[in-house]
């Protein structure tokens, strides 16, 4: 009889994420209206907004956003959630199942990464991440794919974001892929268009009927398909087609390049196995430049859900209309990766996936010390009211309390049962505590250890915090806490005493072992001496016997001689 976990894995193995009836890329692009794309591009280009501006928002117009997930998007999120819920995959001893290993090999081939020539990495972080994710040593932790999907970077460029057990990477859409999106959309056989179909596609883009395609016509066609394309990518497309250098694309130029994109039989065979990445989006197997960036989670400092927590480098997005679609990843090398999702629910799904992996990486990392401080997980994943308190973000907390999000309440408790006020007391953040109390935070919530914020303040002897909490009706759960603390203290003392006795016994045993060794050595030496004396005694006895025999012989000889001299 199979377990629910086995059934879930069977469903995952059978799931064609990007089949024609279930395509998250199609849903992703359909979420972007022209106004929304313009807004995203505008926000991305406004990153030079003065970070010291006191909360002023970017004047980017009033744009509505669709917040409802499609059935396909809901199914997609559920499928990846099942993978992320398997705690055993984060163990350093976890070994991927065969289907997971095949999936990793497919991704590796798609990115054209080999053990000998892994990748033309732009940074040591990318090279190190690719090596660890795809080519771990025998005893190193193994990675499996936990989530993937479409994302926008810099508000314009499409990327495929892939999250693995121990790191993440982004894969870019290339020239060939963009062209296939533009000219093979809705074709019965998108891998190969005949001359008539090519002409129809060309005429569809040539909006003014001039016989040539100009940059603005090409850009407008991409926009109408819901595909945001940066100016740099647009220039690359024009240059690839523009053989004579007149900055326009004639039909002859268009036909020549399109024939160059026809896949070989080998390519078609491999394409049939790449459903993981989308049959409409990535049609070609030319792997040069697919990989964009890659980071191990141990090389990432923290992540921000920008609609809740923002820093100087993301404030311009936090002050814009797209803040609830954005999140940022902050690697330790000082780079900032800002990603935009199609809907707020998608942003939440990405945050959940990244936080699961990042927190597990920090928790089990051999050299991490960040986990020593209270609420460390909320500092690593800045996506809640807990994060605002732990980071002592007064402006962010004030903004959150003034305009609370639907999924983040003032009295919410985390996995340790602590509220934001518990953390304010633990870290002696007086200003945060004042804001929370003035906003009617429940002052007597018990955490998993049965402690109220007052108990924590008393334990740390934070007199100012105690007076503040007491002024809002805060009480200590003292009797229960003292009892539990006494038991805990006694257990710790017993453990220390046991360890001390163990150390003493170990010392005595070591000393006794040393003495026994010395005694045995002395006995061996004494035995050697006794054996030597025994040999010497035996030699002396032998010599004495010889001497006695010689003496008897000599006596006998003398006696016989005396008989001859006196015959009477």
From TrEMBL:
Record's keyword annotation contains Repeat: yes
PROSITE patterns, A to Z: ANK_REP_REGION, ANK_REPEAT, EF_HAND_1, EF_HAND_2, V_SNARE
GO MF, one annotated term: calcium ion binding
Record-annotated EF-hand domain positions: 193-228, 229-264
InterPro entries: Ankyrin_rpt, Ankyrin_rpt-contain_sf, Centrin_CML-like, EF-hand-dom_pair, EF_Hand_1_Ca_BS, EF_hand_dom, V_SNARE_CC
Highest taxon of source: Eukaryota
Domain V-SNARE coiled-coil homology positions: 501-561
Positions of ANK repeats: 416-448
Keywords from the UniProt entry: ANK repeat, Calcium, Coiled coil, Repeat
SMART domains cross-referenced by the UniProt entry: ANK, EFh
UniProt name for this protein: Uncharacterized protein
């Amino acid at each position: 009889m199979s377990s629910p976990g086995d059934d879930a894995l069977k469903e995952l193995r059978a799931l064609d994420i990007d089949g024609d009836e279930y395509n998250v890329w199609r849903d992703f692009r359909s979420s972007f209206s022209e106004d929304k794309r313009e807004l995203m591009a505008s926000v991305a280009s406004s990153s030079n907004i003065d970070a010291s501006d006191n909360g002023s928002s970017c004047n980017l117009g009033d744009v509505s956003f669709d917040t409802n997930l499609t059935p396909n998007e809901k199914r997609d999120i559920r499928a990846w959630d099942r993978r992320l819920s398997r705690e055993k995959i984060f163990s350093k001893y976890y070994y991927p199942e065969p289907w997971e290993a095949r999936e990793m090999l497919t991704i590796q081939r798609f990115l054209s990464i080999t053990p000998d020539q892994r990748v033309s990495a732009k940074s040591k972080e990318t090279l190190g991440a690719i090596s660890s994710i795809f080519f771990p040593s025998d005893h190193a932790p193994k990675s499996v794919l936990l989530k993937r999907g479409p994302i926008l970077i810099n508000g314009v460029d499409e990327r495929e974001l892939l999250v693995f057990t121990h790191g993440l990477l982004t894969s870019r859409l290339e020239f060939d892929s963009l062209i296939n999106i533009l000219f093979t959309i809705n074709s019965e056989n998108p891998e190969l268009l005949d001359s008539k179909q090519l002409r129809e596609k060309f005429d569809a883009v040539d909006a003014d009927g001039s016989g040539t395609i100009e940059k603005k016509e090409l850009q407008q066609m991409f926009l109408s398909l819901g595909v945001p394309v940066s100016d740099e990518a647009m220039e690359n497309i024009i240059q690839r087609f523009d053989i004579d250098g007149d900055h326009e694309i004639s039909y002859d130029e268009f036909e020549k390049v399109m024939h160059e994109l026809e896949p070989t039989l080998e390519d078609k065979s491999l394409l049939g196995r790449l459903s993981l990445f989308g049959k409409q989006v990535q049609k070609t197997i030319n792997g040069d430049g697919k990989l964009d960036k890659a980071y191990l989670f141990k090389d990432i400092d923290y992540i921000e859900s920008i609609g809740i927590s923002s820093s100087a480098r993301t404030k311009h997005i936090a002050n814009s209309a797209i803040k609830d679609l954005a999140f940022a990843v902050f690697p330790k090398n000082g780079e900032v990766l800002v990603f935009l999702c199609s809907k707020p629910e998608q942003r939440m799904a990405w945050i959940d996936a990244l936080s699961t992996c990042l927190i597990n990486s920090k928790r089990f990392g051999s050299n991490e010390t960040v986990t020593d401080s209270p609420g460390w997980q909320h500092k690593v994943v800045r996506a809640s009211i807990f994060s605002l308190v732990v980071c002592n973000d007064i402006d962010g907390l004030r903004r959150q309390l003034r305009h609370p999000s639907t999924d983040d309440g003032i009295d919410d408790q985390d996995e340790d049962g602590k509220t934001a006020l518990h953390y304010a007391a633990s870290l002696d953040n007086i200003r945060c505590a004042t804001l929370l109390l003035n906003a009617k935070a429940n002052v007597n919530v018990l955490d998993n250890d049965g402690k109220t914020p007052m108990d924590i303040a008393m334990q740390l002897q934070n007199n100012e915090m105690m007076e503040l909490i007491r002024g809002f009706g805060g009480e200590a759960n003292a009797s229960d806490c003292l009892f539990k603390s006494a038991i805990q203290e006694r257990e710790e003392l017993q453990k220390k005493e046991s360890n001390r006795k163990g150390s003493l016994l170990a010392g005595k045993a070591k000393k006794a072992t040393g003495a026994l060794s010395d005694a045995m050595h002395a006995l061996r030496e004494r035995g050697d001496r006794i054996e030597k004396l025994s040999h010497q005694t035996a030699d002396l006895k032998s010599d004495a016997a010889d001497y006695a025999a010689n003496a008897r012989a000599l006596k006998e000889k003398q006696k016989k001689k005396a008989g001859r001299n006196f015959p009477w």
